[in-house]
Amino acid sequence: MEFIFTLIFLIVMSSVFLHFVPIGLWISALAADVHVGIFTLVGMRMRRVPPAKIVMPLIKANKAGLSVNVNQLEAHYLAGGNVDKVVDALIASQRAEMGLPFERAAAIDLAGRDVLEAVQMSVNPKVIETPVVSAVAKNGIELRIKARVTVRANIDRLVGGAGEPTVIARVGEGIVTTVGSAEKHTDVLESPDEISKVVLGKGLDAGTAFEILSIDIADVDVGRNIGAQLQTDQAEADKKIAQAKAEERRAMAIAQEQEMKAYTQEMEAKVVEAQAEVPHAMAAALKEGKIGVMDYYNMMNVQSDTEMRNAISHAGKSEKIRGSDSKIV
How distant, in Å, are the alpha carbons of 14, 188, 217, 261 from that of 4? Predict the structure, then answer.
C-alpha cells in the first residue's frame, strides 16, 4: 500500500517538475545549438510565458543567422505581439536583403499590422482595384472609370501611415479632378493614360504606408448626360416657379374682383337706401315749408319727362336693331 502511494507521489511530482522544467524543449534547444538555460525556461513558466512560443522561434532565427535573443522575444510576447510572425518577417527581410531590424518589425507588429505581409508586399507589389469612380467632364457627360493601383509597402511608414482606403480615396479624387478638367469626354476616351500620368504626378502616396508604382485604367464607360439632365431639372423648376407666380397673380385678381363686387353691392345698397329716404325727405321738406307744392309738381314733371325721353330713346334703338335685322334677311 505504501508502495502505491509512493509511486503516485513520484508520478505527481514528476509531472509538476516536467511542467515547470521543460526538459524536452531544453534538449531541443541544445541540439539546435541554441543556448537557453534551464532556469530561464523555468522563469518563463513562472511569468506565464509558454516556453515553446519563445524557444521554437529562437531556434528558427538562429538557424537563419539572425541576431535575436531570448529577452527580446519574451518581451515582445509579453507586450502582446506575435513572436513567430515577427521572426518569419525578419527571415523574409534578410533573404530579400532589406535589412529590417527587430525593433522595427516588433513595432509594426504591435501597431496591429501584419509585418510578414508587409515584407512580402515590399518584395512582391500588390494590385489594388478601385471601385467604379464616377466623374463628369466639362461638356456634362459622365464617365465611369475603374483603375488598378500597383503599390509596394513602405516599411519606414508602416507605423503611423495611412492604409489602403486612403490610397483608394486619393486615386478616386485624382480621377475625378482629371476628368473634370477635360473639355470633352472624348478627350479622356482617346487617351486614358493621361489620367494615370496626372494622378501619379500628384504624389498621392504621401503620408501612406505604401508607395504607388503605377496606376492603370482598367475600364472606362460612358454614363449619363449629367449636363442635359441638370438643364432639364432647372427648366422644370423654372416652370413650376412661373406656374406658382401665375397662380398667385390669378388668386390676387380673383380677390380684387370679389372685393370690387362687394364694394359695388355695398354702393348699390347705399343708393337704394338713399332713394328710400327721398320720399321721407320730401315729406319733411313740404311739412316744414322748405319747398312748395308747385316746386314738388315741377320736380315730378321733370322726372316724368326724363323717364319718357329715356323710353323713347330705348324704343328708337330697338327699331334700328329690328331694321338692321330685316335688311340682313
Answer: 15, 90, 80, 126
* pTM above threshold 0.85: no
Task: Let me know if 304 is exposed, middle or buried by CB neighbors in 10 A (0-12, 13-18, 19+).
Answer: exposed
What phi and psi, each to the nearest 5 degrees, are found at residue 215?
A: -125, 115
Question: In b/e form, how buried is each residue of 72-105, taking b as 16+ CB within 10 angstroms?
Answer: bbbebbeeebbbbbbbbbbbbbbeeeeebebebb
pLDDT band, residue 329 (cuts 50/70/90) = very low
SS3 call for 238: helix
Helix (H, G, I), strand (E, B) or coil at 21: coil
How remote is the C-alpha of 179 from its chain's centroid?
20
- What DSSP assignment string belongs to 98-153? ----HHHHHHHHHTTS-HHHHHHHHHS-EEEEPPPEEEE-TTSEEEEEEEEEEEEE
Helix/strand/coil for 192 = coil
* Contact indicator for 118, 158 with CB cutoff of 8 Å: yes
Show the cell assigned to 308.
Answer: 319718357
Residue 137: name the closest of 184, 173, 177, 172 by CA. Answer: 184
Distance of CA 275 to the CA centre of its chain: 78
If you write DSSP's letter for every residue of 25-41 in order, what string do you get? HHHHHHHTT----HHHH
Of 165 and 279, which is predicted with more confidence? 165
The cell numbers describing 48, all together, are 506565464
Fill in the DSSP letter of residue 157. Answer: G
On the CB side of 216, CA atoms within 13 Å amount to 9
pLDDT band at 219 (very low <50, low <70, confident <90, very high): confident
* Alpha-carbon dihedral angle through residues 164, 165, 168, 170, given to the nearest 10 degrees: -110
Burial group, residue 21, by CB count within 10 angstroms (0-12, 13-18, 19+): middle
Taking phi over 0 as left and psi of -120 to 50 as alpha, with beta for the rest, 215 belongs to beta
CB 205 within 8 A of CB 142: no
Nearest to 122 by CA among 100, 155, 91: 155
